[in-house]
UniProtKB/TrEMBL annotation:
GO terms for cellular component: extracellular region. Pfam families: Polysacc_deac_1. One of its GO terms (molecular function) is hydrolase activity, acting on carbon-nitrogen (but not peptide) bonds. Residues 75-260 form the NodB homology domain. This is Polysaccharide deacetylase. It comes from Aquabacterium commune.
């Protein structure tokens, strides 16, 4: 049985939660283009946000605007970065600091300091940030959320496995950071109704999906829609995504496939 809070009316004007993965110095990829953003384009995108008067909000501020009745800025975005790649520390974070922008990075708790081992079809799994880097960025103002324990497809897991991935990652990351971890991101954007409710039960404040759309079209705090920014998005493409409401596309919650 769902324990979701009442659905709030869509906020206006629209808010975008942007989704990034790897940000750095990359040649044009032959595949998985949605998982890359060249640092030069990332800097251009941050510059565009500033020039156009967008406020870059934290997830806490976004939640207050969308679900707690706080006024929503005329133009606002949230920047989220999935997986916790080490290139974020090297390239993206200095750019964010330069432009005075916040971001939330979602970490895979069992793989901190290791490689992205879930990318089994890649010839080389990229390096993830270690605990020392995570703690340093936290001191400098970066926010962190959970991307589960091992980056699984949650809808494929049993109830007990889902609980472990959702609950244990929160505790482990809070031990690393010495601070609350109130935000969750579904790995692969894959989740079930049970997983969604477990995220709420675990005490998270928000959960983000890979469903495309302006965040104020989200039904509740645990199914927040986002807009994916990929390698091919120049400033024109970025602006188009930013200003569009976008139809809801992507994988929504699915029935649990394993009942136990």
């Amino acid at each position: 049985m769902s324990h979701l809070p009442p659905v709030s009316a869509p906020a206006s004007p629209p808010m975008s939660i942007l989704m990034y993965h790897q940000i750095g110095l990359y040649p044009r990829p032959d595949a998985h283009r949605a998982l890359f953003c060249h640092i030069d384009r990332f800097r251009s995108q941050l510059r565009y946000l500033k020039l156009m008067g967008f406020e870059v909000l934290s997830l806490a501020q976004a939640h207050a605007c969308l679900f707690e009745g706080q006024p929503l800025p005329k133009r606002s975005v949230v920047i989220t970065v999935d997986d916790g790649y080490d290139d974020f520390r090297e390239h993206a974070w200095p750019a964010l600091q330069e432009f005075g922008c916040s971001a939330t990075v979602y970490l895979v708790s069992d793989l901190i300091g290791k490689t992205a081992s879930w990318l089994t079809d890649w010839p080389h799994q990229p390096q993830l940030m270690d605990a020392a880097a995570v703690r340093q960025l936290k001191r400098e103002g970066c926010d962190f959320g959970s991307h589960a324990v091992t980056h699984p497809r949650l809808s494929m897991l049993s109830a007990a496995e889902q609980r472990r991935e959702i609950f244990d990652s929160k505790k482990a990351l809070e031990d690393v950071l010495g601070a609350p971890v109130p935000d969750f991101c579904y790995p692969y954007g894959d989740y079930s109704l049970r997983a969604r409710d477990l995220v709420q039960e675990a005490g998270y404040r928000t959960a983000t999906t890979c469903i495309r759309g302006a965040a104020n079209l989200s039904d509740n705090p645990f199914e927040l829609t986002r807009k994916a920014i990929s390698y091919g998005d120049n400033v024109l493409g970025f602006a188009f995504k930013l200003h569009a409401k976008q139809a809801r596309k992507g994988q929504a919650a699915v029935p649990d496939r394993i009942a136990s």
